[in-house]
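Render this sequence as a predicted structure.
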Amino acid sequence: MSTEELITNGNFSSSGRDGIPSGWSVWNPIWSEASCSVLSGSDGLLMEAADRPFAVGGVLQNVEGIEGGQAYAIAATCELRDIAVPLQSVIVRLVWTRGDEMIHPAGRLIRGPVVEDGIARFDDILVAPVDADGAQLSLECKWPRGGSVLWKQVSIEPTEPPAARKVKVGTVYLQPRDSTPERNLELFADQVAEAGKLGLDIVCLPEAILQVGTRATIRDNAESIPGPSTERLGRVARDYGIWVVVGLTEKVGDTVYNTAALIDRDGQVAGVYRKIHLPREEWRQGIEPGDEYPTFETDFGTVAIQICYDWFFPEPEAIWGMRGAEILFAPTWGNTWPDSEGRVDGENTFRVRARDNGLYIVPSVYSGNSLVIDPMGRILVSSDGGSGVFWCEVDLAEREALPWVGHWHAIGMRDRMPHTYGPLFEEPRQSR
C-alpha cells in the first residue's frame, strides 16, 4: 500500500472546484463570517484569517483503505505567516472511522508543530483501532489572529507500530515508630533494595524520611545534598540500577529547605526540588520555600517532584504538565484519606490533578495509601493498608483519549488560554 493510495493530492498540486484542491473539502464554522478563507495555489494550500481575531477553518479528506490494527505514519508541513501561537493555531487531526461512523469524534491530534525558520512540521505514528476501515484527516487553522498558514505537504502511510516506553514505577508505604534518623535511613534503604530486587526503574520514598517517627525536628535533620543520606541511598541505587526519589531536609549555608532529591541509576544526585508551599508548622521552624518548578530528564522519560502541601494547590501540576512532565512523584507526610468529615481528601485530589494535566502521579505517604495514578485519574496501585513496595508497569507511549475531548495532555496544552490567567498573579484578596 503506497502513500498515494491513502491521500489524494497530498501536495496540493492541483485545484478542483472553487480553487479547492481535488480530494479535499472545506469545513467552516456555522457562522461563516468567522471562517478562514481557503485557496489552493501553485505553492500550496493557503488558509487566511477573516478580519476578526477568532477566525477558524480548515480542510478535510476522507481516507479509504485503512486496515484495523495497522500503524500509520502521519506527516504534514506548512509555512507560518504571522502566527503568534503555532501550538494553538495550527492543528492536524485524524479521526478513525468505521463506515460512516466516527469511532472517536474528537480524533487524535498529530504531534507538533515543531517550528524552525517559519516552517512547522507534524510527525506521528498512530495505530488504527481494530474495527476501523477508514479515517478523516483534517488540517485546521484556529484563531490565527490576522496571520495565515500555507500547507505544503501531508501524507499517511503504513509503518511499524511505535515503540513502547514501559517503565516499572514503584511507591513505598512505611511508617517508622519510636525510631531514630539513623534507623530510618536504613529502613528506607532496605525499601530501595527491595524495589531493586523487583526490577523497578524508579521508586518514590516519602517526605522527610529522617524525621518521621523520631523526636527530631526538621532542622535537626538538615544536611547537604549530596550528603550522607543521598550517598547511602545512592549506593543501593547503584547496586540495583534504580532511580530513587527521596524526601530530605536540606541545609544550604544557614538556609534550610524541605527538599526531595532525585538519585540516578549510578547513585548520583540528578536534581533536587525544594518545597514551595509551606504550612505553618514548617515556616515557624524557619524552613524557607523554594521558588522553582524543575523537570528532570531520565533514561525513560521526563519527571517532576512535588512535596506534600504542594498538592493543595492546582497551579504546580499545571506548570509541570506544560513543561512536559510525564510522571509526577509526590513524597508526602500527610494523609491521602479524607478526614472524619470528608473534607481533605488527598486521594481524590491527586486523581483530579492527574486527569487535569495528563500526568501519572505517584504519592508516597505515611498515612492513608501510597499510590500510582494514571493520567485518567485511575488508581493503578494502592498500598491498601499494607507496608512495603507497591508497583506497576506503565507505558508512557500510551495516549488514551477522553470521549468527545481527545487525548487530554495534547488537547489541554493547545486549549489553555494563558493570556486570560492574569488574575493568578494578582495579590490575593483578604478572606472575609
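Summary. The two ends are 68 Å apart (CA to CA). The chain has two domains: 3-159, 166-396.
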